[in-house]
Amino acid sequence: MREKSESLPLKGRKILVTAGGTKERIDPVRYISNDSSGKMGHALAVEAWKRGADVVLISASQLDTPDYITRIPVESAEEMQKTVFDEFDDADAVIMAAAVSDYAPATVEKQKMKKKDTLTLSFKKNPDILRSLGEMKKTNQVLIGFAAETEDLIQYAEKKLNDKNADLIIANDVGKKDRGFNVDENEVTLLSRQSEPVTISLRSKSEISVEVIDWLVKNMN
Ligand code: CTP
Ligand code: CA
């Protein structure tokens, strides 16, 4: 719904949001990716916009976006990283909701590959965008990441909070059918250094976004 909140605490603030699963090309018609739909990132972008922010949504998702959201489409992790870096300097906050592929094919075939009896692909590690932002960020910039896990959710998420120098990690169980990737609902736990973990029980991704952006408003420098 195109309706801004009555108070606009993020007015004049630039917020980058990444969304969707990156696609890593194998050949002109094939790629590897993951189950992320982009719904969580897109919901966060809309909620930040409602609070008055200048939102830039960098999205690898196929989802439509409301026309009032500035969207930069990207495909691969490398392309996402370049676009995020281009937009980062004057951003007040970044929310890395994208499921960035950890690997990309070591080589991209120029022509459509012909079928053989077996196929072996080699992969190279992709750049870790959130980690780089954690190294680059200025004291006034707020960095929010996700931790997509199927086991030991909180332990792994805490490690990501520290290792990547994020201000908030949103721990996201992606191993269940009713939440996480490619569905309308989610349950998450917010992990920051200032307070004990806060679990936001199962609800729509729009409602989850309200809680996350509330946290951002309270913790914006
Ligand atoms: N991320 C990133 N660049 C990557 C991989 C992940 O910026 N190449 C970001 C994601 O957008 C997310 C956070 O890092 O905000 C955590 O992603 P996740 O996949 O949960 O963790 P990884 O650090 O990739 O570790 P692993 O997949 O091994 O759990
Ligand atoms: Ca990963």
UniProtKB/TrEMBL annotation:
Superkingdom of origin organism: Bacteria
Cofactor binding annotation: Binds 1 FMN per subunit.
GO CC terms, sorted: phosphopantothenoylcysteine decarboxylase complex
Pathway membership: Cofactor biosynthesis; coenzyme A biosynthesis; CoA from (R)-pantothenate: step 3/5; Cofactor biosynthesis; coenzyme A biosynthesis; CoA from (R)-pantothenate: step 2/5
Reaction(s) the record says it catalyses: N-[(R)-4-phosphopantothenoyl]-L-cysteine + H(+) = (R)-4'-phosphopantetheine + CO2; (R)-4'-phosphopantothenate + L-cysteine + CTP = N-[(R)-4-phosphopantothenoyl]-L-cysteine + CMP + diphosphate + H(+)
Cofactors named for this entry: Mg(2+); FMN
Residues reported in the UniProt entry to bind CTP: D102, K112, P127, D128, I129, L130, F146, K160, K164
Similarity-based family: In the N-terminal section; belongs to the HFCD (homo-oligomeric flavin containing Cys decarboxylase) superfamily.
Primary role: Catalyzes two sequential steps in the biosynthesis of coenzyme A. In the first step cysteine is conjugated to 4'-phosphopantothenate to form 4-phosphopantothenoylcysteine. In the second step the latter compound is decarboxylated to form 4'-phosphopantotheine. Catalyzes two steps in the biosynthesis of coenzyme A. In the first step cysteine is conjugated to 4'-phosphopantothenate to form 4-phosphopantothenoylcysteine, in the latter compound is decarboxylated to form 4'-phosphopantotheine.
Protein name per the record: Coenzyme A biosynthesis bifunctional protein CoaBC
Source organism of this protein record: Alkalibacterium pelagium
Full-sequence portion shown in this chain: 179 to 399 of 399
